[in-house]
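Private note to self, pasted from the team thread so I don't lose it. Backbone tokens:
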């Protein structure tokens, strides 16, 4: 079934969440044991309010996450997706992840819905810097404003261009494959539905069940993404 869908689809879109990067060593957010939000309240550390009223904890949280994406690397699953794109098996990746691993593995057409930890920018004047700034302890812009990671914080709008391109891709998809997301955050979790409403086949590969499994044509639970992609590589 999935082999035929992968072979016959003229426009295949892959949608990834934090579960795509756990095999690289990065924690996800909501897994029972290691999820970041099992230890921290996201509104305390990852929201505009935290940036304005809880700056020490905000910086400590994001400094650790910036260190993480510098220390860990894309895994074989990221490389398989990049190779599939290069040979036209998939057309794009829509990701909620901010680690930059899809691009590091070679994917070109990537819509980063929630921004990236690879950059920081000034909250006051918008000037962008590499996130190395966070690692050497500089949290202030030359203008005096506070530097924050270029990720979407709770309470902020998603960046327009990635959102629009994700909408276009989901609308054109004949096959839409979700890899490693609990699909619990809007508006990102609407893209599988948009694809479905436009006639796509929907596949969800996720350790745990998601609220959208009933809409899917195929659900694969309790499997590691890397392993599943390796299997599909053989088709
Ligand atoms: N293989 C398959 N599934 C996995 C793997 C794996 N190796 N590792 C984790 N998972 C699954 C988990 O079971 C979990 O359901 O990936 C899912 C990840 O879900 P979340 O932790 O909720 O991450 P995500 O869906 O990306 O969260 C969306 O929430 O806090 C915000 O901005 C943050 O982008 C994030 C958004």
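Design output:
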């Amino acid at each position: 079934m999935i082999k035929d869908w992968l072979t016959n689809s003229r426009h295949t879109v892959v949608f990834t969440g934090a579960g795509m990067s756990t095999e690289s060593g990065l924690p996800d957010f909501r897994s029972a044991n290691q999820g970041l939000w099992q230890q921290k309240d996201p509104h305390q550390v990852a929201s505009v309010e935290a940036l304005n009223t809880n700056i020490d904890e905000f910086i400590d949280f994001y400094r650790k996450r910036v260190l993480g994406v510098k220390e860990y690397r894309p895994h074989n699953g990221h490389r398989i997706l990049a190779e599939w794109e290069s040979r036209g098996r998939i057309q794009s990746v829509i990701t909620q992840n901010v680690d930059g691993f899809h691009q590091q593995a070679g994917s070109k057409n990537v819509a980063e819905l929630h921004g990236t930890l690879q950059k920081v920018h000034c909250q006051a004047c918008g000037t962008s810097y590499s996130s190395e700034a966070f690692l050497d302890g500089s949290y202030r812009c030359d203008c005096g404003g506070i530097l924050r990671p270029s990720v979407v914080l709770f309470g902020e709008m998603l960046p327009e261009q990635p959102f629009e391109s994700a909408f276009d891709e989901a609308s054109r998809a004949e096959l839409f494959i979700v890899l490693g997301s609990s699909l619990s955050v809007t508006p990102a979790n609407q893209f599988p539905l948009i694809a479905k409403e436009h006639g796509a086949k929907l596949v969800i590969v996720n350790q745990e069940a998601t609220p959208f499994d009933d809409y899917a044509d195929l659900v694969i639970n309790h499997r590691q993404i890397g392993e599943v992609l390796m299997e599909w590589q053989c088709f």
